[in-house]
Amino acid sequence: MKFTRRVATANIVLLSLLLSASGIIVISYFPLANTQPETQTFPVLLIHGYKSGPEVWNKWLPELEKEGIRAKAVHFPIDDDCGSSESHAQQLDTIIQRFKKETGADKINVVAHSKGGLDTRVYLSNDLSNDDIANLIMIGTPNLGSPLATTSLAVAAGSLTINPMMYPYLRAFFCLPALQDLVPGSPATEAEINENTQYLTIAGDWTPSPYYNFFYPFSDSDCPQQSWLPLQRWASDFLIFEGDDGIVPLWSAASQQFENIGVTDNCHTNLSEIDEEYAIVKEILLP
User: Fold this and answer.
1) What band does 166 get if pLDDT is binned at 50, 70 and 90?
2) Which of 233, 243, 258, 271 is deepest in the core (most CB within 10 A)?
């Protein structure tokens, strides 16, 4: 048998030499045993969260471009900042197919901040045969909900009981109906897992710097956003009472139903900055 193989190999080499001598160029190779197909860099959709917009990814986009990764920040045409997870999931049907067509990719990766992870989870659960997304990386996503959402919804309901005419103002302030998806036990937090996608989580375990009172100071080295800082301080110190990022508890963002790939010391609104989170995510996105 070994002799036969050597003869066959010699004949192939001789044939190649004869064809080359006659002016016909032959390019050939023998595949090596146990070779693996080259890994592929998938394009990336970046999905923002609650009461937010695609601008939160402004620092990520040029960095991903430098790495040679095609990336796009999602804008939902309908109720971008306060839409429900179900509505956003339906819009992702079109957004993802269009992105795949633009990039010529069969699969994509998704990086989602906060509620954006729930939106994507609902999208994947709506069709369990869907294999569009290779990796869903959820940063600070309330996979099991957040006590802050429960408290906020109770305040909104109580205010409506006192004065129903306040609904338009309360809807804007509490960002309804998005807030309802963040409550523990909501349909979005219980979306069925799609086995064609790898679900990964990154969480924040933030300890606020010392401060004199609720409003002072308006700064924190790990949480520079002044508009959200008082709320995150209050929630972290007086509502959640345990490891959290100021909005989402650690037990929710790093839910045991998914693989956690990192815990940083940043607050919730700082998780989409260029910091430890980006470095962790890049390791997954690059082959």
Assistant:
1) confident
2) 271
Q: Check if the beta carbon of residue 35 is closer than 8 Å to that of residue 47.
A: no
The predicted-structure confidence for 18-51, as pLDDT tens digits, reads as follows: 333 334 333 332 333 333 234 679 999 999 999 9
Looking up tokens 């010699």 gives 10
Residue with tokens 């079109």: 94
Give residue 75's identity as a one-letter amino acid code.
H
Amino acid at residue number 138: M
In angstroms, the Cα distances linking 76 to 39, 58, 218 are 31, 16, 31
For 120-138, the three-class secondary structure string (H helix, E strand, C coil) is: HHHHHHHCCCCCCEEEEEE
Which residues, 6 or more positions from 175, have their beta carbon under 8 angstroms from its beta carbon? Answer: 50, 51, 81, 82
Residues 6 or more apart whose CB falls under 8 angstroms from that of 45 comprise: 71, 72, 73, 74, 95, 96, 99, 108, 109, 110, 111
Strands 133-139 and 198-204: parallel
* Best CA proximity match to 265, nearest among 207, 202, 201: 207
pLDDT at 161 over 60: yes
**DSSP code at position 244:** B
Domain segments of the chain as ranges: 1-30, 44-285
d(CA 115, CA 52): 10
- Calpha distance 119→116 (Å, rounded): 5
Largest CA distance in the chain: 94
Does the pLDDT at position 111 exceed 50? yes
The candidate with the shortest Cα–Cα distance to 93, out of 118, 130, 57, is 130
* Residue located via tokens 């994507």: 120
Q: Superfamily assignment of 44-285 in CATH? A: Alpha/Beta hydrolase fold, catalytic domain (3.40.50.1820)
Listed in order, strand segments (DSSP E) in the chain are 44-47, 71-73, 108-113, 133-139, 198-204, 259-264
Q: Is 59 helix (H, G, I), strand (E, B) or coil?
A: coil
